[in-house]
C-alpha cells in the first residue's frame, strides 16, 4: 500500500541525495527505499538516501544509503547538507553541529549570510591512504616493506 512520505532533495557540489527527517518519519527498510527513490528514470533520482535521526551521543545522527541500497559510512557533501537541513528546520539552533555517522562523530560548521545558512564545512578527519586499509589491491603486489606506503600517484594500467 502506498503512503505519503515527506522528503527533501538537496545537492552539495554535485552529489544529490534525498533527505528524510527521521524525527517525523519512520523508515522500515531504508536500503530498499534508497534503491527505489534513487532511480533516475522511475524514482526521484539521486546518489542515495540520507536519514536524519536523533542521537544519544551527538546533536544528530545520519544514516546514509547509496543508490544500490548499501549503507555507507558518510559523505562530506551529504554531511554539509544535513547541517543546513537541520538548522533550517529547527532540529538544531547552533552554528557548530556534532553529527554522529558510521565513521564517527563529525563536526559541521555552518556559515551564515543575512541570518541564512549559505554554506557549511565539515572536518572529515585525516584521509586513509594505506592500501590495506582503503582497501585496494595494487599490482604488482607491494612488498612487506612497502605495505604501509601511502597510495599516492601509484601507476595503473588500463586496457
Features:
159 residues, Diaminopimelate Epimerase, Chain A, domain 1, 8-stranded mixed sheet, 8 strands
Could you tell me the strand content as a percent range?
Answer: 25-35%
Mean pLDDT: 90
For the CA atoms, what is the radius of gyration? 18 Å
Envelope shape: globular
What's the level 1 CATH class of the largest domain? Alpha Beta
In N-to-C order, the SSE pattern is EEHEEEHEEE
- Residue ranges: pLDDT <50 for 5 or more in a row? none
Percent range for helical residues? 10-25%
Number of helical elements: 2
Coarse structural class: alpha+beta
- At the fourth level of CATH, the homologous superfamily of the largest domain is Diaminopimelate Epimerase, Chain A, domain 1
SS elements, strand count: 8
Structure description:
There is one protein chain. The chain has 159 residues and is of the alpha+beta class. The protein is built from 2 helices and 8 strands. Strands 1, 2, 3, 4, 5, 6, 7 and 8 form an 8-stranded mixed sheet that branches. Strand 2, helix 1 and strand 3 (48-53) form a beta-alpha-beta unit. The mean pLDDT is 90.
Give the structure's gist in a few sentences.
This protein is of the alpha+beta class and 159 residues long. It has helices at 30-38, 76-88, and strands at residues 8-12, 15-21, 48-53, 60-66, 71-72, 96-101, 104-113, 116-122.
